[in-house]
Amino acid sequence: DYAKSTEILHAAIARLHKGIKSVANMASNRLDLLIQCYLMQAICYAKLKKWNNVVDQYDAVLPLVLKKEGQDGKQYNSVLIHKSALLAMMGNYVMATPTINKYMKNAEHSNPDLIVDDLDHALALDTNAATHLKLEKVDKAISVFEMKLAFVKTLPNNNQMKSDTMHKLGCLLAKDNKLESALPLLDEALRTKKNVYDGNHKSVLETTWAVAATNHMLGNNDKALEHYSILLDNMANIEDMPVDAAVIQHSAGKLFFETGKASKAVDTFRRALQGAKTSDNPQLESEITLNLANALSGQEKMDEAMELYDQLLNTKSLKKTKISFTTRFNKCLLLIKMGEVDEAKEMLHKMEENPSSMANHVRGSIFLTLGNLAVSDGDIDEAMEYFDHALDEADDDDVSALVYTKRSIAMAQLDIRQYDTAISTLEDVLEDISYLGVDGKSVNLLKAEIWNCMARVYKKVVDLRQAINFARLALQTYKADLGEKNPITLRNLTNLQLLLLEEAEELEDYDDAKSVTDAAKCELEDTLNVFESLDHPWTYRLDVATLKTNIGFLAVWEGNPKKARELARQIEEIELPFEHSLVHR
C-alpha cells in the first residue's frame, strides 16, 4: 500500500525535522533515519509513478547524504545517478545532464576504484550516453557505450547486461553509418540473447530486427531476408514488442521489392499499412502507402497504384511536403509507363517550376526524366540542357545522381553515334567514383550500370570482345550484390549470352561456334526456367517472351523449326503491347 506508506513516511520526516533549525545541528542517528525515510518515500512514489514527487525526494535527500559522506560518498553518488536516470526517463535532459556529469566527474577522480555498486555505475553510463544522444553527440555516446561494454565484461554472470550493451552500441554505430563495425556486435548480441532468453523473447526479436536492418543496409540481402522472415513469423505472438510491427513489415517489404519478390512485397506492405492505421501513425502510413503504390506499379497494377498516388496527393496534411512531391514524381513515372507522356511532361514541368524547397530532393530526377524523354523524342540538344540542369541540382557527394545523369548523357551520345565521346563520358564517371573514394554495395551496382553501358557502346562499334568483357564485369557484380536469381542479374546474364552468340557467328570453325552456341542456349533456357518460377508471371512476361524469342531463333539456326514453332505458339499466348519491338522479332 504505497499511498499509505507515503503518508506514514511524510509524518515521520516531519517529526524528525521537529525542533531542528538546521541539518548541520542534527544528530547522526537522526540524520540516518531521515535519509532512510526520504529514500523509502522515493521508492513509494516511483511505485505510484509520481515521478515529480520522486525527484523532490532526491532533491531533499542529496544535501543530507552530502553532509554525511561528502561528494565522494557511495550513497551520495548513487542518488545522483538515480535522479539523473529518472530525469532522463522523464525527458528533462536540461536537469539530467548536469546531474549525471557531476557523478561522471566524481567517478573520474576516483579512478580506478568505483564509488558505487556495479549496477549503479552501469546505469550511470547508460544515462550519460542518453544525454549525449539528446544533444546529437553520437560519437560521445558511442565512446560511453564502449566504456560500458569493457566494464560489463569484467562482471560475473554478465550475459544479460553484455548483450544489451552490445545491442545498443551496435545500433549507435549503425546510426553513425559505421555498419561494418556494427554488425559483428549485433550478431554477438543476438547469439548471447538466445542463450539468455527464449528465442521468441521480445529482446531477442528486437536484436533480430537490428541485425536484419544492418544486413539490409550492407546489401547482405540473403541474411537480411532470413532475419526478416523470423520476425514476420514470430512477432505477432509477442506482446509489447519494443519495435512497431508496422516499421518491421515496412522495411521487410522494401527488401522484398528490391530483391524482385514483388507479390511478397505487396502483401507485406498491405499488412504494414493496416498496422500503421491501427497504431495511428499517419507519417508511417503515408510512407507505406507510397511504397505500396510503387510496388503495385512495378507489378503493372496501374489502376490500383494510381489510386494510391492520388489518395496521397489529395491528403491535405501532406500538401507541399517532401512525400507529396515524391508521390507526384512517381505518378509521372507511372503515367509514362502507361503511355500518357504528355500528361507526365506537364506535371514534371509544373514541379520543375515550383520554388518550394520541399521539391528540391526530386528536382534533379525531374530534369533527368525530362532529358530522357527529350532523347526519346530525338531532341538531343534539349536533352543535354536538362542533363546539365540535373548535374547542377546534384550534391557534390551524391554519387547516384552523378552516375545516372552521366549515364544518360553517354546513352544520348550513343544515339547520335558519338561513340568515342560516349566512351569518354562513361570512363569519366568511373574516375569520378574512384575520386570520391566511396564503396559498398550501392556503389558497386552503380559501377555495374556503367560497365553495362560500356558493353552497349562497344557492341555498337563492333568490338564484341570488349563488350563481352564489360558485360561479364557487370554480371559478376550483380551476382555478388543482388544474388543469382534477382531479375536484374538474370537480364544481364541474358544480355551476355546474346553477345556471345553474336561473337560465335563470326567464328570460322564450326565446332568452336557450336560449343559457344550450346553453352549460351543452356544459359538462356536455365534463365527462362528461373523467370517462369518467379512469384509474379505478369511482371516478367516481357522477359519470358524475350528469352523464348531468342531461344526460338537459336532453334531455327540449329535446324529445329518444330521447336521454334512451339515457342512461337507459346509467345502468342503472352499479352504483349502491339507496338513493342518484340512483336516484330
Structural class comes to mainly alpha
Poorly predicted tracts of residues: none
H and E order: HHHHHHHHHHHHHHHHHHHHHHHHHHHH
Helical fraction: over 70%
Notable traits:
single chain, 585 residues, mainly alpha, elongated
Summarize the structure.
This protein is mainly α and 585 residues long.
Set out the fold topology.
Layout (H helix, E strand, L loop, with lengths): L1 H16 L10 H20 L3 H19 L4 H16 L3 H18 L7 H17 L3 H15 L6 H17 L3 H18 L5 H17 L2 H14 L10 H14 L3 H17 L3 H17 L3 H12 L8 H16 L3 H13 L6 H17 L3 H14 L5 H17 L3 H18 L4 H20 L3 H19 L4 H19 L4 H24 L7 H17 L3 H12 L8 H4 L1
Helix pairs in contact: 1-2, 2-3, 3-4, 4-5, 4-6, 5-6, 6-7, 7-8, 8-9, 9-10, 10-11, 11-12, 12-13, 12-14, 13-14, 14-15, 14-16, 15-16, 16-17, 16-18, 17-18, 18-19, 18-20, 19-20, 20-21, 20-22, 21-22, 22-23, 23-24, 24-25, 25-26, 26-27
Folded structure, characterized:
By secondary structure, the chain is mostly helical. It contains 28 helices and no strands. The chain has helices spanning 2-17, 28-47, 51-69, 74-89, 93-110, 118-134, 138-152, 159-175, 179-196, 202-218, 221-234, 245-258, 262-278, 282-298, 302-313, 322-337, 341-353, 360-376, 380-393, 399-415, 419-436, 441-460, 464-482, 487-505, 510-533, 541-557, 561-572, 581-584. The termini are far apart. The mean pLDDT is 92.
